[in-house]
TrEMBL record:
It comes from Herrania umbratica. GO terms for molecular function: symporter activity. It holds the Pfam family Sugar_tr. SUPFAM superfamilies: MFS general substrate transporter. This is Probable polyol transporter 6. It is found in: Membrane. Belongs to the major facilitator superfamily. Sugar transporter (TC 2.A.1.1) family.
Amino acid sequence: TGRCTAGVGVGFALMIAPVYSAEISSPSSRGLLTSLPELCISFGILLGYVSNYFFGKLTLRLGWRMMLGVAAIPSFALAFGVLKMPESPRWLVLQGRLSDARKVLSLVSNTEEEAESRFRDIKVAAGIDANCIQDVVKPPSNSRGQGVWKELLLRPTPTVRWILIAAIGIHFFEHATGIEAVILYSPRIFKKAGVKGKDKLLLATVGVGLTKTTFILAATFLLDKVGRRRLLLISTGGMVVALTALGFGLTMVERTGEKLLWALSLCIASTYIFVAFFSIGLAPVTWVYSAEIFPLKLRAQGVGIGVAVNRVMNATVSISFISIYKAITIGGSFFMFAGIAVVAWWFFFFLLPETKGRSLEEIETLFTRKTKPKKKGLEIQPRSNAKT
């Protein structure tokens, strides 16, 4: 019951946090701010690993209860912190509360000129006259989500269909490439590789959490400089190499049945390299990208679909990993994840345009341009005697 109750809260947070961060951020810092939820999740995982290491030294009767119960402390802090957060200006505009939206934009924009420009763009995206100066107007007809599911799933335009495929794909591949197998079962991987002893296994796991947090922190500063697409391709390419090396190392350990120092070192290094590459690109970009590509009226529901796919894949990999590695060996399972990562790289290369530095209202045009049919009959036939 406790897990299910906590799961409802986690589900809300996973959808709302990146959407809210994207909607209050200016284009120049949206990558940094929208990746903060993922950074904080990784920091929380790291704190969990560290606290578990120390709680593991307590008696069994007390230790596991402390491991679970301590999570209530940040939950209370979050509950009180939310009370001080301003409402999303885009949501306020959809409710017709233009004056309140303008005040929030003044708080979260770098300059008054930027606040005014963002305010005009949001009004246009919501279907309100850009020059409207009223404090309160009648909410647009789609302000409460009427017809949104129809536009998303039943009769999507080519642009919306491409956006939806991109969002579902990036959430699918975030977990289908095996991060759950590494994070949840890293002690088992290290044990297979030859690391013995409870303390050594827990310390190796703490190293995974520390690597994840460090590289996501680096990614938050790179997203608005390097760009989402480039980080994503570098990240996925590195994951392919690391997963292949990990699969090879674990296969050699299993096949020989001996303690091979080089294979042990390769397994440990590959695990950390995989987590590093995942954390510097795919982990934060998934949440930033999916939160910023949907049009205003479809954003909440579109991101909701992406998060649902994300959670389903999270659970699928977590539940099935042991069965998979027993069926095809633990090394074979990571070769499988490497193959999926190759497919992911091609998906990102062909279907995900760069969104760095663009306003949320401009991003839709990136997906619109390539879906427009080419005009026929406009080609100019060169004359045979034309001069250059």
